[in-house]
């Protein structure tokens, strides 16, 4: 059965809220702000299937999640796309699970190619993977998602300089610009400032788009693809809301790393349509 | 005691450069990255012969570790080169998550380790790196003793599937191991058989231990002398066998006592066969500027101090 992107995204947000509720821990806020963009990425954009995915990325598009704490959205999308059984989502954060609190490779979860959680590292890894594709003549693309708060890490800007220096133009980097981090807004906590100006100053092509409107998302990726191969790395700044999709979770840092209560979860379920069938708990 | 002939002083980092250059011609998957230290790491020949496989990353060590991890995921074998302090302490978290926990096949080439870095002083004289690296699950730590051994270890590191930390020094030191040796990761190298005291030495201290063994033999003390080139995985069998034989163990290394080879051996022996030990290493302090030999003597890392330790039981 074919589902529309909004239908998939609705189910993914249900999965996210139910996973963190069941685990009594996890990071729903950023997972829900990145849901629409990553739903498009996994279901429309990337040249990779569960069948031909391999960790090396040889001959396929590669995705790196640098902001590893939003593992719920990654796990839900991988399961919904067919990388592993949807039922496995019930094991999130449990002892022995392949769905670790933050993504890991040591338990062999299909679709995950690098551990992430300690912030700021994934962009560098993606640059290395993109340079490897150039070396081996692989025409496919490397995608990476970083958080806006994560952009306070110094390594992000080491990587930014390096990608421009090496003209890594087979890379599409993305920032989930939801303006929230654990201790408050990105402005109040760290004065994050004008991300477009910063990335442009580092020599990147910058695209901005609404990360919750599938038409805008499609156009954003289309523009990014037009800008590939022109000697500059590409950054899409997705304008998003933390906790998007559930009214009492949206637009606040409070749900960065907090699980809903059973009552709150039930309330959230009323706002998110079940489209593909919930995983069993 | 067998004669060990110094064929001329060479720096161990040049052994790395020679090994890397050979790998460049024998293994097309080998890449090299550096953080503005191409010359210091002796990567010039590789860079000149394989410019497409050489990456100057600039003074951005954390990014270099991550880039190497990405290249390794794609099946390449990247060697990242910088000073040992910046290859370990500065990027510990990147090495932990992007390399060890992610099981990426990255080789860390760490030069200018230890007090023999000399005049630059304590900011650059890392004495903690082996401890930091050997704590990481899955990491192999190799501390070769001379040019020839370093070259062989570099080639062995490329063939090993998994992260490796290779430690080199700055100054020229005697080159005395065979030029045609095959380096076996995880294997201790017996240099002399003796019944009275065991000396385990690593890196620059191996040559000092050879001089110490000669002096001790002249005094009638037989030394079981073992080169521990692979700090991790430790050759536990060789360590336990020698300790059982002599009942007295000296460990000599250019490192802090904390986290070093001595502590590692002590842990093995405490469980298997508790043995009195002496530690020829630096205890709980930073170094300072000076000439390598003068610093080795001042901080107790030379043949005289090994002799003294061996006679102190």
Care to describe what's here?
The complex is a heterodimer of chains A (281) and B (313). Chain A has 281 residues and is an alpha/beta fold. Chain A has a single domain (5-271), classed as Thiamin diphosphate (ThDP)-binding fold, Pyr/PP domains (Rossmann fold), CATH 3.40.50. Chain A is 39% helix and 12% strand. In chain A, the strands form two sheets. A five-stranded parallel beta sheet of chain A has the order 1-2-3-7-6, with helices on both faces. In chain A, helix 1 crosses helix 4 and helix 3 crosses helix 9 (214-227). Chain B is of the alpha/beta class. Chain B folds into two domains: 9-174, Rossmann fold (3-Layer(aba) Sandwich); 189-310, Rossmann fold, CATH 3.40.50. Chain B has helices spanning 12-26, 44-49, 61-73, 84-87, 92-101, 129-134, 147-159, 205-218, 236-246, 261-272, 292-298, 303-310; strands spanning 9-11, 30-34, 54-56, 77-83, 107-111, 140-142, 164-167, 172-174, 189-192, 197-201, 223-227, 230-232, 249-256, 277-282. In chain B, the strands form three sheets. A seven-stranded mixed beta sheet of chain B has the order 3-2-4-5-7-6-12, sandwiched between helices. A five-stranded mixed beta sheet of chain B has the order 9-11-10-13-14, with helices on both faces. In chain B, strands 1-8 form a two-stranded antiparallel ribbon. In chain B, strand 13 (249-256), helix 10 (261-272) and strand 14 (277-282) form a beta-alpha-beta unit. The longest helix of chain B is centred in the N-terminal third of the chain and has 15 residues, at 12-26. The two termini of chain B are 22 Å apart. At the A-B interface, helix 5 and helix 6 of A face helix 3 and helix 5 of B.
């Amino acid at each position: 059965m074919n589902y529309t992107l909004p239908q998939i995204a609705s189910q993914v947000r249900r999965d996210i809220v139910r996973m963190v509720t069941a685990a009594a821990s996890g990071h729903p806020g950023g997972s829900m702000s990145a849901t629409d963009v990553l739903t498009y990425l996994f279901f429309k954009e990337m040249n990779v299937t569960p069948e031909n995915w391999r960790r090396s990325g040889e001959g396929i598009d590669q995705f790196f999640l640098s902001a590893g704490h939003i593992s719920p959205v990654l796990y839900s999308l991988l399961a919904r796309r067919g990388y592993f059984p949807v039922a496995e989502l019930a094991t999130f954060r449990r002892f022995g699970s392949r769905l670790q609190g933050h993504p890991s490779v040591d338990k062999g979860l299909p679709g995950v190619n690098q551990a992430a959680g300690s912030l700021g590292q994934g962009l560098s890894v993606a640059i290395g993977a993109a340079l490897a594709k150039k070396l081996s003549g692989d025409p496919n693309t490397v995608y990476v998602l970083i958080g806006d708060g994560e952009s306070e890490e110094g390594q992000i800007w080491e990587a930014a300089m390096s990608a421009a220096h090496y003209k890594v133009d087979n890379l599409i980097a993305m920032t989930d610009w939801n303006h929230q981090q654990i201790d408050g807004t990105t402005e109040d906590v760290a004065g994050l400032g004008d991300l477009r100006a910063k990335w442009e100053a580092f020599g990147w092509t910058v695209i901005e788009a609404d990360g919750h409107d599938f038409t805008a998302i499609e156009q954003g990726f289309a523009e990014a693809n037009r800008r590939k191969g022109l000697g500059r790395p590409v950054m899409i700044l997705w304008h998003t809301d933390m906790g998007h999709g559930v009214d009492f979770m949206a637009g606040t840092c409070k749900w960065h790393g907090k699980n809903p209560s059973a009552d709150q979860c039930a309330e959230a379920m009323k706002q998110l349509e079940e489209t593909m069938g919930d995983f069993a708990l | 005691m067998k004669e060990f002939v110094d064929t001329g002083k060479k720096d161990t980092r040049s052994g790395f450069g020679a090994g890397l250059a050979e790998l460049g011609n024998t293994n097309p998957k080998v890449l090299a990255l550096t953080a503005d230290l191409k010359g210091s790491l002796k990567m010039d020949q590789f860079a000149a012969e394989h410019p497409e496989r050489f990456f100057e990353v600039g003074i951005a060590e954390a990014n270099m570790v991550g880039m190497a991890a990405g290249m390794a995921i794609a099946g390449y074998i990247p060697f990242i080169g910088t000073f040992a302090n910046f290859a370990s302490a500065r990027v510990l978290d990147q090495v932990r998550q992007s390399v060890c926990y992610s099981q990426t096949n990255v080789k860390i080439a760490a030069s200018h380790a230890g007090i023999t870095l000399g005049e630059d002083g304590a900011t650059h004289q890392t004495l903690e790196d082996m401890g930091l690296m050997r704590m990481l699950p899955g990491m192999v730590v190799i501390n070769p003793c001379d040019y020839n051994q370093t070259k062989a270890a570099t080639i062995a590191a490329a063939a090993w599937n998994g992260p490796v930390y290779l430690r080199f020094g700055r100054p020229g030191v005697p080159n005395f191991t065979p030029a045609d040796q095959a380096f076996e990761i995880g294997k201790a190298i017996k240099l002399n058989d003796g019944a009275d005291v065991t000396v385990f030495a690593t890196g620059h201290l191996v040559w000092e231990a050879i001089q110490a063994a000669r002096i001790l033999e002249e005094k009638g003390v037989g030394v079981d002398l073992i080169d521990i080139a692979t700090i991790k995985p430790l050759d536990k069998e060789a360590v336990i066998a020698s300790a059982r034989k002599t009942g007295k163990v000296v460990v000599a290394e250019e490192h802090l006592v904390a986290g070093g080879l001595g502590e590692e051996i002590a842990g093995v022996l405490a469980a298997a066969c508790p043995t009195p030990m002496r530690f020829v290493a630096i205890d709980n302090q930073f170094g300072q500027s000076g000439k390598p030999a003068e610093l080795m003597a001042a901080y107790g890392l030379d043949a005289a101090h090994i002799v003294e330790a061996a006679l102190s039981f």
